[in-house]
Design goal:
Elements (H helix, E strand, L loop, with lengths): L1 H5 L4 H8 L3 H8 L7 H12 L2 E2 L6 E2 L1 H8 L8 H11 L27
Helix pairs in contact: 2-3
Length: 115
């Protein structure tokens, strides 16, 4: 978020992006937000967390990465199959629950494997 401010994006625009008021963003930037800072930080991550996909070079939100990586393996579409396979070992692969993470999450269960 500080990078956006440095690029000239206003606090009001950031506030609109994350669903908070401009004064809340000002308090956060000045480190005087107080209790509940985790909630505004989660909103910032949700609004601005993007990764460059090593497979196709596109900027993606973690939710899109999660949708591809934890979705069913595609069949009959070589590009989609290659993307899905790359997602399984990607260093940016999000956790299955949606918690922000750059660690590789465990691979999804395969057919015939019971937990």
């Amino acid at each position: 978020m500080l990078g956006k401010l440095a690029k000239g994006v206003t606090k009001a625009a950031i506030a609109a992006d994350i669903g908070y008021s401009p004064p809340a963003v000002s308090r956060y930037v000045s480190e005087s937000y107080g209790a509940g800072v985790e909630k505004i930080e989660a909103a910032i991550v949700k609004a601005y967390d993007r990764r460059i996909c090593p497979e196709d070079g596109e900027e993606k939100a973690p939710s899109r990465c999660r949708q591809i990586a934890y979705g069913p393996q595609p069949h009959g579409f070589p590009d989609a199959e290659a993307r899905w396979r790359a997602c399984q070992t990607c260093p940016h692969k999000p956790t299955p629950t949606g918690a922000p993470s750059i660690q590789t999450a465990p691979a999804p269960l395969t057919k015939g494997h019971k937990s």
